Amino acid sequence: MDLVHAYLEGSAAGEAAMIDRLRVLARILHALNRRLGFPLDTHDVEDLTGETTLLVLEKLREYEGRGAFDGWLSRICRYQLLNFMRKKLRRPQATDDLDALPNRAAGSDAEAELVAQENADRALERLGGSEAEVLRLRCFEGLDFDAIAERLGLSYVNAKARYYRGLRKLERLTPGLLDESQRPKEEQEERDERI
Amino acid sequence: MSASDAGPACTRDSHSVSAPHWPAHGWSMKMHAAMSRDEILERLWSGEVDLEAPEVKAAAAKDPEVRDAVARLRATAAHLRTLGKERAAVLAEAATLRGVSGERTVTDVARRRRRQTRVRTLGLWLAAAAVLGIALTWRTWSTPSATGDGELGPGARVAADAAAPQGVVDRYGEFTWRFGSPGCEYVVTVFDGQGRKIGDSGRIHTQTWTPTFDLPTEIEWQVDVKTPDPQNDPEPYEMRARLR
Question: How many beta-carbon contacts under 8 Å exist across A and B?
Answer without folding.
Answer: 166
